Amino acid sequence: MKTTWNNLKEFLINLFHNFGFAWWVEVVTQNPRCTYYFGPFLSSIDAKAAIKGYVEDLEQEGAQGIVVNVKRCKPNALTIAD
Question: What is the pLDDT of residues 37-70, one digit of tens each?
Fold first, then answer.
């Protein structure tokens, strides 16, 4: 059962995303050469709290040279492979 706060938070995330104000975790790997976007998040604090899990998953898949950025953006694709 969703609470009122969860409904409001989801609405705000969607609104922020539509205007390009939502926060995203951008993960760039050198091997394989890919850029991944995880999100959207309402705040940079929420996005930063999720980083560890994303990095651990990519490391378990064998990704190397991982660089992480938290930023406001509106990615066109969630995975970009070179």
Answer: 999 999 999 999 999 999 999 999 999 999 999 9
pLDDT the model gives residue 6:
85
Positive or negative, the Cα torsion across 59, 62, 66, 71? negative
Q: Output the pTM of the full model.
A: 0.88
Termini Cα distance of the chain: 41
Measured CA to CA, the distance from residue 24 to residue 44 in angstroms comes to 8
Ramachandran angles phi, psi of 48, nearest 5° = -65, -35
Q: Is 36 exposed, middle or buried (0-12, 13-18, 19+ CB in 10 A)?
A: buried
